[in-house]
């Protein structure tokens, strides 16, 4: 019975992800750069669909990686994973993982949702609905701060005690480490290699 219900829920989720245009994360409709909302639009649609099927589900973190090695532009970070905390467990599992489908060529091409034990580290408070920047906006902030290296992944997380989420670029050149960009403040910080463990590796 539970397996059958889980299958039906998954099918409905996949159909909804393909068709839904509902938004739950804020976007700046007045932004003159049409590309500035593209990444957020795909994420917001996926969040809306998951929350429609699982009321109360909250976005914990976003992980994006390259399938082609180090990149110079974030447009190639098409391997995307969205982790959700689910207060109403499915088959006893506390979290939902929505990933890009294999060989995805662009954002918004999702595979079937998976139900997992809660993957959120205890040091993270979750993103909720506070994501306000687009990946291209934070990328420009990083470049404007003089960080012009290639990168192979970016995580979006909000750790306990922090007032905003951070986009954490894992740089592709050995020894460069991480470049962090504040989601709201746009502040750019650099962390040397070896100072943190990446969940995207």
Summarize this structure as a short list of keywords or feature phrases.
single chain, 201 residues, alpha+beta, eight-stranded antiparallel beta sheet, 22% helix, globular, disordered C terminus
Can you give me a brief rundown of this structure?
With 201 residues, this protein is α+β, with helices and mostly antiparallel strands. 22% of the residues lie in helices and 26% in strands. The protein contains 3 helices and 8 strands.
Layout of helices and strands:
Elements: H1 2-19, H2 38-53, E1 58-65, E2 79-90, E3 93-99, E4 114-116, H3 135-144, E5 151-157, E6 166-171, E7 178-182, E8 188-191
Antiparallel strand pairs: 1-2, 1-5, 2-3, 3-4, 5-6, 6-7, 7-8
Helix pairs in contact: 1-2
